[in-house]
Design a protein that fits this description.
Low-confidence stretches: none
Shape: globular
Order of helices and strands: EEEHEHHEHEHEHEHEHEEEEEHH
Strand order of the largest sheet: 1-4-5-6-7-8-9-10
Radius of gyration: 17 Å
CATH class: Alpha Beta
Structural class: alpha/beta
CATH superfamily: Metal-dependent hydrolases
CATH topology: TIM Barrel
Largest sheet: 8 strands, parallel
Mean pLDDT: 94
CATH architecture: Alpha-Beta Barrel
Strand content: 15-25%
Number of domains: 1
Helix content: 25-40%
Distance between the termini: 26 Å
């Protein structure tokens, strides 16, 4: 289904890693053109937990690419910081390198935002980290959308201060969580039930089972749903071994990208267009519903383009 998709979580694509040292303007242009060809005409390059110097360099490069290329200026709507202000606990941290997880810091965030000349539009943080509600409030005051993710089984009492402080969404709900969580008071049920919050999720056929996708799309009003790809740089590449987030990952023939050592997923390889087809074919969504969760709602969450 060809449409103009908006993706708020692109870590890399077609062999180009936004989180690798030495990212070039030419690589950013190539990714942007490839995504456009595949139906994603607006996106947030996503910088995950890692060396701050690499993140700063990447942000400088993204700014330069938007200046050089009209397509990059149009299609790169901002930047998503997925970390480093997350939980370092196993399960919650996922594939993020634990050694670079950081406490909430407006000074560090300011370095990123200055390097990106205001491009940072979305930040994922872990709700239960000490000082996080104040951090969320400060980010929100700057017009940055804050999403909660990569956290332990945060209780409703732990989530509420961050939501009250301005957090608007949950990042890839159902992933970046420990395998075992409380059966009642858990972040998934809280996210589904809270009418103030947007649920971002990855409908690639690997991150969530069809039963969970059906629950999300039936239990949550359409306006609160946002599909993201969470694409990693092996997307569009042949099956094999890749270095992702500083660890060895395996891309299987069916598109599953995982870390055998940590036994966790490390992002996805399915483009937005294919995910929208999956939601229509296997979950029963209409084209208009897919356009809402894959185009209109993402734009609304970040307040439009950069």
């Amino acid at each position: 289904m060809r449409a103009e998709w908006i993706d708020l979580q692109i870590n890399g694509y077609g062999g180009v890693d936004f989180n690798a040292p030495g990212l070039t303007v030419e690589q950013v242009v190539a990714v942007t053109e490839r995504l456009d060809q595949d139906g994603t005409v607006g996106y947030l390059p996503t910088i995950v937990t890692g060396d701050p110097e690499t993140a700063v360099s990447t942000l400088h490069t993204l700014v330069a690419a938007r200046r050089r290329s009209a397509r990059c200026e149009r299609n790169i709507l901002g930047v998503h910081l997925e970390g480093p202000f997350i939980s370092g606990e196993p399960g919650a941290v996922g594939a993020h390198p634990i050694e670079w997880v950081a406490k909430p810091s407006m000074e560090l965030f300011g370095r990123f935002q200055d390097a990106g000349e205001g491009l940072v539009r979305l930040v994922t943080v872990a709700a239960e980290v000490p000082g996080m509600p104040e951090f969320v409030q400060a980010l929100t005051a700057q017009g940055v959308t804050v999403s909660l993710g990569h956290q332990m089984a945060a209780t409703p009492a732990e989530l509420e201060p961050c939501i009250a402080a301005g957090a608007k969404a949950f990042t890839h709900l159902g992933n970046g969580l420990p395998n075992m969580i409380p059966r009642h008071d858990n972040v998934i049920f809280t996210a589904l039930a809270d009418d103030r919050m947007t649920v971002m999720f990855i409908p690639d056929g690997h991150h969530l089972p069809d039963t969970m996708l059906k629950v999300y799309t039936r239990a949550v009003p359409l306006k609160r749903l946002v599909a993201v790809s969470d694409a990693q740089y092996p997307a569009g590449m042949p099956p094999g071994e890749y270095d992702v987030c500083g660890s060895k990952a395996r891309l299987e023939p069916d598109g599953l990208l995982w870390n055998p050592a940590r036994k966790c997923l490390v992002g996805a390889t399915t483009p937005m267009a294919a995910m929208m087809e999956l939601l229509q074919r296997r979950i029963g969504l209409t084209r208009d519903e897919c356009l809402a969760i894959g185009r209109d709602n993402p734009l609304a969450l970040i307040g439009g383009g950069a």
